[in-house]
Design a protein that fits this description.
- This protein is about 45% helix and about 20% strand.
- By secondary structure, the protein is an alpha/beta fold.
- The protein has three domains: about 5-95, Arc Repressor Mutant, subunit A; about 95-165 and about 270-295, 3-Layer(aba) Sandwich (D-Maltodextrin-Binding Protein, domain 2), CATH 3.40.190.10; about 165-260, D-Maltodextrin-Binding Protein, domain 2 (3-Layer(aba) Sandwich).
- A five-stranded mixed beta sheet has the order 4-3-5-12-6, with helices on one face. Strands 10-7-11 form a three-stranded antiparallel beta sheet, with helices on both faces.
- α1 crosses α2 and α2 (about 25-30) packs across α3 (about 35-50).
């Protein structure tokens, strides 16, 4: 199909609506545009096809000449498109609830909790994709994303799931190399931290930005760059260095004493959010969102 041979879809929609409704005003209300916009689209379509397609009849309008057949063909075509969209939406709702989130959040927060959801709702399948790239939720098959940030993603519905403060963590043994009561909010604490070994996910630029904002700049010999946060966490848990992590990711480690937190100024406004396109929510997704809120 050569789309260059097809007139504007907006003009075709306007003409089909006007022909079906018998009125530019009614078509405008249906398509949520102005009366003038419908008239302009119809006139542009007539110019494109080189012949009149619509004429006034009483207080309304009606297709004439080739416009009659074109209106019937467009009605059939748009009905087939609507049926295809409905089928696709039905398939989307019948399949698993599909979620995308980061690898670290999936491994350290979602997966340790999700067995409880599956036990309570064995008939509701959930598919989790762990990826560090941000996907376009309008074009992807995912119903929901769990993203870290301020919650401001234009055009999307976002709801806070967990607190988002960053924490400096290391093993208890590694922390013995710091002075007692070391605090990143204090100058002496920051100087001590700069001379500790640090681990960084080289693909996650927010780490260094946050650390620098605290006034801590690890000297190059003390900074090891790794290619994923999963590697950073594994090395950090093994005592290889300190790491900056979202609290939600290391919450379990801190609770069990595997890692210890260094006091640091708090960052406000950040967190993990559930993010989805606007519009109706299926019963399956609503159930999963309710569960997420209960375990956060």
């Amino acid at each position: 199909m050569d789309w260059r041979e097809i007139p504007s879809l907006a003009a075709l929609r306007a003409f089909e609506a006007a022909a079906r409704c018998g009125s530019y005003s009614a078509a405008a209300r249906e398509l949520n545009v102005t009366h003038a916009a419908i008239a302009q689209h119809v006139r542009a379509l007539e110019l494109d096809l080189g012949q009149p397609l619509m004429e006034r009849q009483g207080r309304g309008v009606a297709p004439v000449g080739a416009g009659r057949q074109l209106a019937r063909d467009l009605a059939t075509g748009f009905a087939e498109i609507a049926a295809g969209i409905s089928t696709a939406r039905g398939a989307r709702e019948d399949g698993p609830v599909s979620i995308t989130t980061t690898q670290s959040f999936a491994e350290n927060w979602l997966m340790p909790r999700i067995a409880g959801f599956w036990a309570a709702h064995p008939g509701l399948a959930v598919s989790v994709t762990a990826e560090n790239t941000v996907v376009d939720l309008f074009r992807s098959p995912h119903h929901l994303a769990i993203r870290y940030g301020s919650g401001d993603w234009p055009g999307l519905e976002a709801e806070r799931l967990t607190e988002g403060r960053n924490v400096i963590v290391g093993t208890p043994d590694l922390m013995t190399r710091l002075p007692p009561g070391c605090d990143a909010a204090q100058p002496e604490g920051r100087r001590a931290l700069e001379h500790m070994p640090w681990l960084n996910d080289s693909s996650y630029g927010e780490f260094f930005a946050w650390l620098t904002a605290q006034g801590i700049t690890p000297a190059p010999p003390f900074l090891t760059e790794l290619t994923s946060n999963a590697m950073v966490l594994a090395a950090c848990r093994a005592g290889a260095g300190l790491s900056v992590q979202p609290f939600a990711v290391v919450e379990g480690d801190l609770a069990k004493g595997r890692l210890v937190e260094v006091p640091a100024p708090q960052t406000t406004g950040l967190g993990y959010f559930t993010v989805r396109p606007p519009g109706p929510v299926s019963d399956r997704l609503r159930l999963f969102l309710r569960w997420l809120g209960s375990v956060a």
